[in-house]
Write a structure and sequence with these properties.
Blueprint lengths: L8 E6 L4 H9 L6 E7 L8 E5 L5 E7 L12 E5 L5 E6 L4 E4 L7 E5 L2 H6 L4 H13 L5 E4 L1 H10 L12 E5 L9 H6 L6 E5 L21 H5 L3 E7 L3 H13 L5 E6 L5 H12 L9 E4 L1
Parallel strand pairs: 1-2, 2-4, 3-5, 4-6, 5-7, 6-8, 8-9, 9-10, 10-11, 11-12, 12-13, 13-14
Amino acid sequence: MVCFPSLKILYFEAIDSNSNLMQTFFRSCPVLEELTIHVDIEFNENVTTFDITVPTLKTLIIYMLTDCNVNRHVSIHKFVIRAHNLEQLYIDDDTLACFVMDETPFISDASLDDCFSLLSRYEPSKNEANHAMVLLRAIKNTKFLSLSEGVMGVLILAFDGNLPTFPNLIRLEAAIDAYFGRKLLPHFLNNSANPEVLILKKEYDIELPLVRFFYFESEIVPSFLILHVKEIKMIHMMGDLDELEVMWYLLKNNKVLKRFLAGFIRNIDSKIKKYLHYQISRFPKGSNSLEVEFC
């Protein structure tokens, strides 16, 4: 195997790839810092394990591509990631593959994306959904965390009071609605030490079965929400009652909030939008220095 002593950035497309060959190739890149992997499930069903052991790696991007006609609903693929110095992680996976990661103490930016189309055609078992929870625990030290609507939906299926704590979290961006993730929001708030920015957004404007509807649980007001969060954005909203309930809760219970931005979908009726602006402006506010903005 040829050695690449100066290679720092690598794009790798895994189609009919040999996992042992991949591991050997990574060992031939002693200073590799940024790795992007595309895995095509349709042509790659025989590869079940990817061993990514790269001590120098700082940025890892993984795309798990799938075909809707693939028989398996949840991927048999497994990623074993050993990258102690990892700082940035982005995973776009609609197959709910299994990720085994060492704890990443230096990670600062983590994004878990997709899983929405998987949920639209199949409900994973709790054990399958736990793949996402295990991965979330591995990145608990991140400062910036972004979770898609689909990932939040999978985490709900795995949740039994076992969310990790996030001691360093500064910014949380979560795509939620009454179907995906709203149940988890108070628990994320309780398990975060002192984030300053909270961004909530709706990604998909579709109707789903009521069996997947979860009410917003707001009995306990997290101390960090009262004392630390200075900026909140709720974007791509439709003006549903469940959205207004969350806005009311966040505005009322924050004592240091300086900016609250409420953004609605583009095709919302102008009269409805004006009425929503009026209603939100009348919500009780816990912060005297708060500015409410609309877009």
